[in-house]
């Protein structure tokens, strides 16, 4: 397979000088998204009852989404789509439009303990560094990490008064720099690492999982990093093997390199931007921010986790966490405690529409719910 079809290493300077990963959409495509939103709004269906036909897009709009997903699976492992007409939409309309676009790109995944399939990224007073804390509902700076899906999509509706800069780094460039500086740490990264689910594992599953930070497939690169979840497993679960000195060295070197301005590219998301990141080829973070006083002006993005039909195969050791390692499969997400039959029916329809392999799931009723 041509390397053009795989993500490759890039530096901050390369991303600055070659902007082929930025996708300004045409007025025709933008209007197509708006008309689809009006159609979906009039139909009034629940999100999980919708199909791509309920968000009908003209060719220009469909082509823009296909090109965007293609960029995440190719050279850059990322895309920044610009020009979506969010200023024409209310908060609820923008949420519906984001969901509708996702229907055409892949199959949405649940994201948290509440089994939510779309997240509002805004400061709601959360605490990132507490046990089971998540960053998307705080104004805190975030550690570099990747999300539990093939592609994470962020639609920007409002920007902060100050701060909130997005940072992205190529995981492949990180691997290459570690191999240059400390080749002895590559097998350490490919060994067993234990992570906390942060309470979102779902009924009947252990609260932590094992997943190497770096795959060993020479064709299909795959890497992950989330120091916060690794350290949470060390703190909360005594049965988890203790980190070795070499593992701590590897984490420290990752922290150093991820923030290196030669490798890390910084960008400001603007209203109407849709940022799409390949979770196996990039890591991302965000600086802290100060918000506006008025509620409707506060920083606000919508987040989708997507399984996409053009995804790569994953390392076999990742199958337990992701649910499936096959290329193009419906996989990833955090099951949480409130997975519904409506969502299972939705992902079954989406899998059929996109011709994606799917391992069927069932609803598990929590004991407290059964007793109610």
CATH superfamily: Clavaminate synthase-like
Count the DSSP helices. Answer: 11
In the CATH hierarchy, the third-tier topology is known as Double-stranded beta-helix
The low-pLDDT segments are none
Given this structure, which CATH class is correct? Alpha Beta
Protein name: TauD/TfdA-like domain-containing protein
Keywords: Antibiotic biosynthesis, Oxidoreductase
GO biological process, one term: antibiotic biosynthetic process
Pfam family, one: TauD
What does this structure look like?
The chain is of the alpha+beta class. The protein has one domain: Clavaminate synthase-like (Double-stranded beta-helix). The chain is 31% helix and 16% strand. Strands 1, 2, 3, 4, 6, 12 and 15 form a 7-stranded mixed beta sheet that branches. It is globular, with a radius of gyration of 20 Å. The N and C termini lie far apart (55 Å).
SSE layout and pairing:
Elements (H helix, E strand, L loop, with lengths): L11 H6 L4 E3 L2 H17 L15 H15 L4 E5 L8 H15 L1 E2 L10 E3 L20 E4 L5 E8 L3 E2 L2 E5 H11 L4 H4 L4 E3 L11 E3 L16 H10 L8 H14 L6 E3 L6 E5 L3 E5 L2 E2 L9 E8 L11 H4 L18 H14 L12 H5 L1
Parallel strand pairs: 1-2
Antiparallel strand pairs: 2-12, 3-15, 4-15, 5-13, 6-12, 6-15, 7-14, 8-11, 8-13, 9-10
Keywords: Antibiotic biosynthesis, Oxidoreductase
Pfam family, one: TauD
GO biological process, one term: antibiotic biosynthetic process
